[in-house]
Specification:
Length: 90
């Protein structure tokens, strides 16, 4: 079993915007910054994203779900209202 503090997926992730490629159409531009805070365990996943654009307030997206196949609500995300996580069996 991997403990949350041993999970390489968990932590704070900052996108390297200059090295990233975004497919946005004018007048949209790539974000100025994009940071993810990830907490993971064998049964739970929690993600908080902070996305900053030049002419708007920062966008905060949150999701917390368990690996049980049920739908969990995501906040502030176009195109998806819920997310479902399923345990992977090896």
């Amino acid at each position: 079993m991997i403990l949350p503090h041993d999970d390489p997926f968990a932590g704070v992730w900052n996108s390297d915007i200059p090295k990233s490629r975004f497919t946005t159409l004018p007048p949209l531009r790539p974000p100025l910054s994009w940071r993810q805070h990830i907490i993971a365990s064998p049964i739970h996943l929690s993600v908080r994203e902070e996305i900053a654009h030049c002419n708007s307030s920062p966008i905060l997206v949150r999701v917390a779900a368990q690996f049980d196949g049920r739908d969990y609500t995501r906040s502030r995300l176009a195109g998806a209202e819920t997310i479902g996580l399923y345990p992977q069996r090896f």
